Hints:
alpha+beta
Amino acid sequence: MLKDLFVSEVRVKILKTLLTNPDKPYHVRGLVRAVKTEINAVRRELDRMINISLLRKRQSGNRIYYSVNTSSIYFPELLSMVAKEEGLGYDIIRNLKKLGDVRFAMVSRAYLRGRQSTALDVDLFLVGDNVNLPVLQEIIKRHEQMTGREINYTVMPEEEFMFRKRKNDSFTSKLLSQSRTMLIGDEEEFCTVY
């Protein structure tokens, strides 16, 4: 499976396009424009990804539309990988030194899948001491403007996070139970109570 997936630059471009817009179907010419590649290369890669059940296709009139198969066993991992190379996740990782002492950073999978946040959701969560809030707010503002979606974020000192995990408080329990992509830090360590 992996050898079929990561050999082609065109395939990577298509995956980035489809995974960052998992609910949006694309027809072939739309993908050709999005990835700026010739049509035959796009068709060839689409066929390969259909054959391994990574994409779905449906016909509407004389057009065939492609979208990512969110039921694919590889979807969560690929979404996590793309999140670290594109968008908000990439910016958090790229600006890690400017952000300060960040021990853990996670972004919710629901956010990555394009869901609109409610006041109760946490799209981005950072744990660390002396996090540079102006830098983080600049990153957040830029991505809110680019996507047209509000990003709910929380920053918590490490000691408070550990205390709240031990006390099993409702906020951290909800946070630990949601699907996520870890941008910084080890997920097992993030979830472990000690």
